[in-house]
Amino acid sequence: MGRCYYVASCLFTARFPEVSMRIQAYIRAKGGIETVRCCIPKYRVRKYEERLPEGGVRDAWKALPQSADFQPEDTVFSICPNCINILAEWKKVENIRSLWELIDADPDFAYPDYAGMRATLQDCWRTRDRKEEQDAVRSLLRKMHIDFAETEKNREHADFCGSTLFREQPSKNSKLAPRHYVEQAEGKFHPHTEEEQLSLMQEHCRQYGTETVVCYCHYCLEGLLQGGAGGVHLASLLFPGGGENGVRF
Predict the structure, then answer these.
(1) Which residues contact 195 (CB under 8 A, 6 or more apart)?
(2) Any domain includes 177
(3) pLDDT tens-digit map of 196-224
(4) Are 62 and 48 within 8 A, CB to CB?
(5) Rg of the chain over all Cα atoms, to the nearest angstrom
(6) 116-160: per-residue pLDDT in tens?
(7) How many domains does the chain have?
(8) Domain assignment present for 186
(9) Distance (Å, rounded) from C-alpha 236 to C-alpha 248?
(10) CA separation for the pair 126, 158 (Å, rounded)
């Protein structure tokens, strides 16, 4: 029997430090799950530490193990779709799941009530082949009483991951997860200028019929905000308490 981990994600934590700390507290309270920072040992450790606010948050982050010696028989949860894809291919982790699946299966999770708030759900290209994750996301929105609309290109047809698909990707992605990021990425990750990326995001965001657009990928959120949409990360809805999307609930 393998070990059980939660990968907290360097990029997500840099973007949402307070939300990440609340998620980590939830993971600790569940017990039996080891929290680590990153899916890749020694990857840009100092860079991501320095992006965190000085003081308690940074100290708590530095106290965590940076990564782990993941094995195929381990169970791994992560909030980052990129980490999930890398560990599934590189480390051949079979039981790898999103944070959303863990929460959805937790009968004791205390859901905030958004009282019928209307939103559009934006799926992510990086999760297009992960039906269980997509189902869990929708289940969580319903449990929070969020009335959501689907986009035309949703689930396995999702073709959005912010402007990351229009710029060169980190070399680690194609090296460690070539099926996801080379074989299945035809036409993607070709560099565009910042002006072109902005235009593409603005064009994409014109489709939404609601003020709020919920996503569950920090890359997607970057693109939504870049394009002028009212993007909100699912984690901020589940673990409210700050205004880290530029919106306070």
Answers:
(1) none
(2) no
(3) 999 999 999 999 999 999 999 999 999 99
(4) no
(5) 17
(6) 999 999 999 999 999 999 999 999 999 999 999 999 999 999 999
(7) 1
(8) no
(9) 9
(10) 8
